[in-house]
Every structure is written in C-alpha cells, then in structure tokens.
From TrEMBL:
Residues 323-348 are annotated as: Disordered. InterPro entries: DUF6589. It comes from the Eukaryota. This is DUF6589 domain-containing protein. Residues 21-152, 157-249 form the DUF6589 domain. Residues 326-348 have a biased composition (Acidic residues).
Length: 348
C-alpha cells in the first residue's frame, strides 16, 4: 500500500491481488464533491481508450466524510437556527461554526434524556438516571432497552464518525440523504445514494471492504478520535500554509481555524468540562418534555418535516423521470435533473 498527498485530495494505492498487474490495482481518491465531479468527467472523457490504464479505470473516487459532516451541520443550522422564529434577540449572532459542538452536546444530553424516560416507563421506582444506575441491571435488559430507544431516536452521524463505526455511519446515510434532498442539497443526497449503491451492489467485496476500512483514520491513536481522510488533508494543508510564511493571511481569512481549534496555538489541549452545561441542558429538557409527546403543548416554531419532504421529492422526481422516458425523452436529457449549484466545497 502506498500513500501520497497532493492538493485537496488524498490518494491511496491498493493491490487487490498478490499477482501485481495492471488490472488488480486501484487508487482511492478521497475529496470533496467537486473532486468527484472532476474524476467522473475524466473517466467519461477517456471511455474510448484501449487499455484500462488509459481509461483511468483504476481511479476510484470516495466521498470525504468531513465535508459531509459540514454539510450536515449546515442543514441543521438552516432547519433549527436560521429561521427567525427559532431565535431570541440574544441569539442573533448564532454562528454556523459552532454547530458541530452544538449537535454533539445536544445529542449526548438527548440520549441521556431518552434513557431517563425509558427507565421510568419500564423500571418501578426510577425517577432519575442515578436511580437507574443503582439498579445494576443485566446486560440483556440494557440491550433490550437500547434496541427500543434506538428505534425512537435519530442516530447521530457525528458520534459514529468519532467512534470509527463505519457500519453505523452508513446506516445514517439514507436518513441524511432525505434531509439533504428536503433542504435543497441535492448533490449531497445523490452522492450518498451513489456511495451506498457502489459499496453494496456494484464494487466487488474486496474493494468495498478496502473503502470501508480506509474512509476514516485515527491520527492520534486515541479512543473516540477517528477523523475522516479529507479532514486530515485539510489539516495538513493548513500547516503547509503556515510553514510557508502565510500565517497573517490564514488568521485573517481561513474559516478552518475554529474547526481545528488552533486559536490557542495547539491542538493538544484537553476537552472542555461539560458537566455543569449538560446538567442545565438536561434540566431544561425534563422541564419542557423535549422528548415526550404532551397533548395540547404549544410552540413558537414548528420544525418542518425535512426528511419527509425529501422522501416526497425523491418519489415525485422518479415519477417525473418515468413520464419523461415514456414520452420519448432521452437519457441525456434525464440526467440534467441532477445538476445543481452546490459544488461540494468547504463553503457549504
């Protein structure tokens, strides 16, 4: 296996057979959606060539999950924070750069609140999580409760990425594809569907396994510290610019500083202590029944069913395509529906 770094994408060369030959090598290229667009354009332009090498058939594009994570945070910002009805006057300066931590912290407390609610339903005498922990339940009971809670709560993409659980990450792709479709991020939705189709139906098992085992990395070797390959690329690019005496320009222009936590001149600082914040957030969720249905409860803002909207749009799009094909439209005209303005760059 050979690694090479160049520009804004990451390439890994794998040999799928011990007999090293031209048709058993692939190069995995990790990058943003714009990188994938260029690679597919290259492959299409070389389809008339004679050999596998000349057709660049060995070149396999893999969507970078760091850019997907940023697009997901942007979608959540537009759904829950951007509408004026969701904010108070003190929240006018809410920044999208903070959304990654907001999603992670609220997700942790929301899961704890779900455990609290489920424990009160199933176990007599449990009023809080301390009482639940004191019961010392068996692993079978905890697993049964976990399965029930997982059906009633949304899987957290960020949590799965940090833990390096690629299987859980892939289970999040379909719900997020519908959310992206409903938010207007059609290119991300299409890329998620393309990834799942290729991994589970198109690529041979060996290639699918290689992609799944290398789409995430753990630069520090610590627990729960997995990162996407394109995150590592952007991180190294940032240091390269710094070493090339461009520090002043980076400080003025780069939006990546907050994401990589370089404002304190180091990436080795300890994580923040969130015990007090989590306790306040948990109290708020309990008081307002955030994860429980209460008949007659009112709200200033009704969260739109973005996932349902995306699913509906996908169904209508398929029906429209079938009608166009029935009317004699060509496949080339059919493909024009996938063209959108989103280029998949860091500016989500």
């Amino acid at each position: 296996m050979t690694n090479s770094m160049n520009g804004s994408f990451y390439m890994i060369l794998f040999t799928l057979d011990l007999n090293i030959s031209e048709d058993t090598k692939v190069i995995l290229v990790f990058g943003d959606l714009l990188t994938g667009k260029h690679i597919r354009s290259l492959l299409e332009s070389c389809t008339e060539e004679w050999t596998l090498w000349q057709r660049f058939q060995f070149c396999i594009y893999v969507m970078g999950l760091f850019h997907l994570k940023m697009a997901a945070a942007d979608a959540m910002w537009h759904i829950f924070i951007h509408p004026k009805k969701t904010r108070t006057p003190t929240d006018e300066n809410s920044l999208i750069e903070l959304m990654h931590e907001v999603i992670q912290h609220i997700g942790i407390v929301a899961h704890l609140d779900c455990w609290h609610i489920e424990a009160k339903k199933q176990i007599p005498g449990v009023e809080n999580l301390d009482d639940f922990a004191a019961k010392k339940l068996t692993s079978e009971t905890l697993q049964e409760m976990t399965r029930k809670i997982s059906k009633e709560s949304i899987a957290k993409l960020l949590h799965a990425l940090n833990y390096g659980d690629i299987g859980c990450v892939e289970t999040c792709f379909m719900p997020w594809a519908f959310i992206f479709q409903g938010c207007g991020k059609h290119k991300y939705a299409s890329e998620l569907w393309r990834y799942l189709e290729n991994i589970h139906f198109v690529y041979p098992p060996g290639l699918s396994h290689v992609i799944q085992m290398n789409i995430l990395c753990n630069p520090t070797g610590k627990r729960h510290a997995f990162r996407a390959i394109d995150w590592l690329v952007e991180h190294n690019n940032l240091y390269t610019k710094y070493l090339n005496h461009q520090k002043a320009r980076i400080l003025d222009e780069s939006p990546l500083l907050e994401m990589f936590c370089l404002e304190h001149k180091t990436t080795c600082h300890s994580p923040p202590k969130m015990k007090v914040t989590f306790a306040k957030l948990s109290t708020y969720m309990v008081e307002h029944n955030s994860n429980m249905f209460v008949a007659g409860q009112k709200t200033k803002y009704i969260v739109p069913d973005t996932m349902g909207k995306g699913l509906q749009a996908m169904v209508f799009e398929k029906e429209n395509r079938n009608e166009m094909m029935g009317d004699g439209e060509t496949e080339d005209q059919d493909d024009e529906a996938d063209v959108i303005d989103d280029d998949g760059s860091l500016d989500v």
